[in-house]
Amino acid sequence: MKKLKNKKTELVSWLLFTISALLLYFVATDYTIFPKSYKLPLLCVIIALICISGIISILSKRWFRYFSIILNVILIVCMMAGLILLPNIEKRVRSIFKDVSTEEAVINVYTTHSKYKEDFNSYSDSSFIIQNKNDLENQSYALDILKEELNNPALRTIKTDDIVSAVEALYNNEGDLLILNEAYVDSIEEIEMFSSFSNDTRIVYTIKKEIEVIEKEPFERDITNALFTVYIAGEDTRSGRLSIYGRTDVDIVVNVNPVTKQVMIIGIPRDTYIPNPAKDYGYDKLTHLGNDGIQNTMKGVSEYYDIDIDFYGVVNFNTFRYIVNALDGIDVDNPYYFTTAGGNGSLTGEVYEFPQGTIHLYGEAALAYCRERYNLVNGDYGRSEHQTIVIKAIIQKLLSAESLSHYDDLLYALQGQFLTNIDIEDIYKLIAMQLDDNSKWDIISYHLGGEGDMQGTASMGWNRRLYVVHPFQSQVDFIKQETEKMKNNEIIKQETLPDEDKTYYIPN
Fold first, then answer.
1. Domain 228-502 adopts which CATH fold?
2. Does domain 102-212 have CATH number 3.40.190.10?
3. How far apart are CA 225 and CA 173, in angstroms?
4. pTM for this one?
């Protein structure tokens, strides 16, 4: 009777293991990210384990029976751990990508230190400076809120022609308070006379408005079988706050063709002078297009360069640091020596030297490499070039087999550091495809140039001359041509960019 009871225990433990193993197989292979080529090998391993465990379970020797029960319990624990771990990994991956169905506009009311009053209600009879051309909807919304808050439906307003004139009016004491969208502050502080705007003013009231984000049509092609394009945009800010509204200091277009296994990275100077769709197609600095949303930037770049941009990825410069550290560093081919001494590369103040040639960078150094521009002979052009180089190195590392050993660090590093409209299922498909074929990718990169001069802009006013970059038409045509080739699944190769040696930079 005791022998029969032990045998029953062995069979029950074997049956539980069989059920948990098969359950793990069906759960794991049901994920989009699971490579098709791994399904049969995994099934063979599970069946082999079930058979081995079953054979051990029916052996009659006493010590085999105990070993069988212990083995089955261990295997059951492993299978259950897998069932718990898989959903947890998926949850962490999904949490990387913030829901952007709505966005928040932050409109602040600014005043000078000399006119600051602690009691906001005492501003009821004050004059509010507004401007007539930019961000009209948000300004109108803010005024309605302020009228209600101050219980004064007839607030006095002073209208100016543009944002710069509005800020100037505040500095000149032509009005008491300035209503300004927070997204425009970085652009304002680029102007030398307003470079200390944040220190010169006090925020006396903040209004937040929820904006419904209008996305492009869904990507209907099979992402593993057609060219797709991603716009990588980022801000040089310490706050780390991610938003699809705001000035962009990183402007990179990435064409990806999963059929030919080629990637083309195109770095565009942030000061590139192109039509701004949100400002009646008046010419503007590329960086300013982001003040009206990343979709506005994508539209402007798509139309000017004739590239159908499908997705965006909004990052902070800190994202480079986190990803590079998670990958245990990256190798970059640095074209020339430079240092961050007295420049703006390092957020910590540490001085970095970057020798010419192949160098290995970790997080802080990679961030300084991407940020520095004042110590470069060609300023922002050089910074754009370095950002392109780092993006290329990150993509190369991500596509390597070595990156699989860092997946957990990557998931942790990317939490809250990446904002995109790429569907998570498409990302899973791309990962599964790469795990399936483990193909080597050919990565081609270009950093565009142009001729710099001073011009008025649609965002900051035509009377205010700002530094802009006029793109070379030869380079615009070249990028169109190479993109069309990729779209037709033609193999492209690294070429010398037309007029590469004619870029003209004005220190600013």
1. Aminopeptidase (3.40.630)
2. yes
3. 60
4. 0.84
